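Chain A, query sequence.
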Amino acid sequence: MMSRSAGTALITGAAGQVGRELQCTVPADWRVIGCTSEELDITDQQAVQTALEQVAPTVVLNTAAYTSVDTAERQADRARAVNTEGAGILADAAFKAGARMIHLSTDFVFDGAQGRPYGPSDPPNPLNIYGKTKLAGELLVRKHTRGSALIVRTAWVYSRYGHNFVYTMLNLMRTRECVGVVGDQVGTPTWARGLAQALWRAVLRPDLQGVLHWTDAGVASWYDFAVAIQDEALNLRLLERPVPIRCLTSEEHPTPARRPKFSVLDKSTGWAALGGPPPHWKFSLRCMLQELAHA
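Chain A, predicted structure.
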C-alpha cells in the first residue's frame, strides 16, 4: 500500500515538534523535503512559489505556525502573518502546483463554553489572538484550495523536541519547592509522534478533505497533566524528588491570552478516518518520557 501511494511530501515548520516527528515517521518509499522557517518563510509569496515549483510535491504538510499563545497578544501582526496570511499563501501555491494541502490547526478556535466535546462542524469562537489567526488561516486554506484541503485540528501538543508544557514542568519541578498549575482548563494532551503518524495516514487517504479532529484519547486538566508528568518522571528518574503541585484557578493564574475552559475535541470522525482510537494520553506521555530518559 505504501509503495503504491508513494510521492513527495513538502513539510513546512520542519524544526517544530510535529515537523520533526513527521520526518521521523516517514512511510516507506516516500520522499520528504523538510523546510524550517529559516529555509522557507511561508509569508514570502515568491519564496513559496519557487519552492513549490522546485520540489513539485504530491502533498504539502503545513505544520508551520506562530504558537506562542501569550506572546501573540502583543505580536498580533506577526501571528497573523504566519498563521493566517502564510497559510493562505502556501495553500494557494499548493493548489496551483497541483499538490494536496494538509493543514494543522488547533482546539483554540473554540471558546470552551459549549460543555461537551467540539465536533468539526461546531461553530468556532476563538478567545485569543492565536486562536483567531489560526481560524482565519483555516478559512484561507479552504478558500484557496476550493475546499479540497484537509484541516486537522489537534490540542496540547508535546514531544521530546522543542518547547512545550512537559519540558516546562520538568524544569520547574527541578528548580522550585512548589509548582502551581491551573486545574479548571480541560483538554487532551497529545504526543506529536502519534499525531505525525495520523497525518501520514491522512496523506495515504487522498479522498479526505474538510476538517477532522485528532488528539490522544482521554481528557485532563493542566493540573492532571502536571501530576502525571511528575509521577512518570520520578519513576524514570528524570526527577530526583517530588514537589507539591498546587491546583490553581484561571483567576489565580492570569495570563495575557484568555484560554478556553473546556476545549476537548470530538475525534470520532477523525479516529474513524485515520486509524484510531489512539492510546490514552497517559500511555503516550510515558512513552515520550521513556524516550527522553534513554536519549
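The two ends are 32 Å apart (CA to CA). The first helix runs from residue 2 to 5.
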